[in-house]
Structures are given as C-alpha cells and as structure tokens.
Amino acid sequence: MMNKTLATRPSITVAAVAERDGRFLMVEEYAADRLVINQPAGHLEPHEDILSAVAREALEETGWRFRPEFLLGVYLWEHPSQTHSYLRLAFAGQVFDHDPARPLDEGIVHALWLTPEELSARGEQLRSPLVLRCVEDYLSGERYPLSLVKSYVGSGRP
Q1: CB count, 10 Å around CB of 101?
Q2: Number of domains in the chain
Q3: First to last CA, the chain
C-alpha cells in the first residue's frame, strides 16, 4: 500500500535551465550512491523566496551565477519507489560570472554542458525523467512570465 502522506506532500524543488550555443548546463552528482545527471537543482530552504533559491542552487552546484528569465514549468513527479514525490519549479535563464575555483556542493562531481542529444543518450543516468522533459519543454518554446511566481516569506505579508 502506498504511503499517501508522502504522495500528497511533495518536496518542493527548483531547477535552473541554462542554454548556451545549443548546450545545456548540467551537473553530474551522486544521489543514493549513484552517479546521475541533473540540472542545477535543489530544495527550497526555509524563509527563502523561490527565485533566490534557483539562483542559489545554480551557484552552489556549478559556480555560475544564474538569472532566471522565465518560468519553464511546474512538474509533479513521484519516484518509482512511491516513497517520495517532488514538485519542481523549473526556470530558464542566463548564466554569467563563472567562478571555476568555487567549491561545489557536497555530492556534485562537476558541471558540464550537454547537447539535447547527449543528454538523451544518457537516459539511464538521468536523475529523473524531469531532466530531459525540462530541456524538451525549453526547446518547444514553453515560456511563462516570472510574474506568475509570488513569494511571501519572512513577514508573511504581501
């Protein structure tokens, strides 16, 4: 029997999708003792607004500063084990001001730039199906204004 509490209370994550010259910024990281490919992504931290979270995750995982330009999509994914589900807010934007000497988050092996074809060829290594789906949505022209994203953190007042 599936644990309905976990399925109805997903972890909130943010992901950065950055494209440069037909290649997408990815990270190779360890997750559950497995080397996987993912966008720079991570969990929303307490008292953190959503757009700051995606910029922070990109910097911590790649050494690149990320400026979100639009919302790519909101994705709900349930892990095949049915013990975890994730609500991913994916943002596309530009990276700039790279610091190659910056230490990367624990578990991150390195950042790399992959074409959609290279990413697709590494299907078994993708952390989740959302990795390729976000790139596909970006390439198909999905674009939503950042004004859709509202964060009321700290004071609790708009």
Answers
A1: 6
A2: 1
A3: 41
